Amino acid sequence: MAAPRRGRPPQHWADLDPAARVAALTDAGLPRFRAAQLSRHYFVHHTSDPDRWSDIPAAERAQLREVFFPRLVDPVRELRCDGDTTVKTLWRLHDGSRVESVLMRYGVPGVRSSGRGRMRTTVCVSSQAGCGMACPFCATGQGGLTRNLSAAEILDQVVVSARMLEEGALAGGPGPVNNVVFMGMGEPMANFAAVLAATEAMIAPAPDGLGISARGVTISTVGLVPRIRQLTEWGRPVTLAVSLHAPDDDLRDGLVPINSRWKVAEVLDAAWEHARATRRRVSIEYALIKDVNDQAWRADLLATLLRQRGDWGWVHVNLIPLNPTPGSMWTASDAADQDEFVRRLEARGVPVTVRDTRGREIDGACGQLAALDRAGSA
Ligand code: SAH
Known about the structure:
The protein is an alpha/beta fold. The protein has helices at about 20-25, 35-45, 60-70, 150-165, 190-205, 225-235, 250-255, 265-280, 295-310, 335-345, and strands at about 75-80, 85-90, 100-105, 120-125, 130, 145-150, 180, 215-220, 240-245, 280-290, 315-320, 350-355. The longest helix is centred in the middle third of the chain and has 16 residues, at about 150-165.
């Protein structure tokens, strides 16, 4: 069989903004009021199955499906753990590329690993097949970039996950998607237009979008400074996460190679500006790597850099125990060093949390997603 062509996916309803949807219908000689009907099926009922479109004449359904709802993401494998509160899905795209997303539920009564508090559900989506950022500790970074996903390919990961949820895929029963995090495969800021278009469709109220609150959407980046600034100008109060991993350029140049282009100080300035403009607290991601970036002096330096830019709670630090990737010589920090790192930040008034290790045993945790060649015969 010939190798699949890596290429642009067909256009989909979710690639169009509301005005363009109406225009496309008119161009196809179809009534404009179909737009609200189709959007309701897709964004509210999470279905693109024409057999369920009972309010649309049967004669039109096949055409509408073909023109506006090409199949974009096909689930080929599903792995579960954490008492069925975490599900990782491997998707095959139209050209054979593979990406993964992870569905996580928190606060399920009686399931200890899902944490406490109100029940809520997060989808962690991929924005690219592979990634070009080459961070040496990240599994996705090792394979390079295959291609950008389209807006609809990103959004469809959420829509199909929402449908799975309604069908009872997770412990705790059916429920809505509350949060989306761009922390799957890829660097969202390197696929900026598609990520913004997908985010617009996530936060638009029904029936034009999924109606998720902007603050419930987190865009995580290695620190492409001009894109962070554009995100700030865009003005939607989404949450920004910056993958810092080191407070000093010497170390960060090696851990996050794009640092040779945009330095720690510039990245933090852009992050601070985002927090100031949106009043949303920025999240600083910091994977703790034993004897690499976990020294007490680095915690002190990080606290100093963050406090220098503002002391009104503009930021919080999210420490991630490193998930070792195959072949890597690095491991997670010792508990005592992690505790000391936390203590030093707290002592200087910097809010800090330690990320849980959800999805670890199914290679679905932070930085473990690497679907490209493991797909096998799927
Ligand atoms: N490209 C984006 C999104 C990637 S993944 C970014 O870098 O922000 C989301 C988070 O997981 C990032 O903070 C990333 O640095 C982190 N991560 C990557 N590999 C990891 C690993 N092996 N262990 C723990 N965290 C990791």
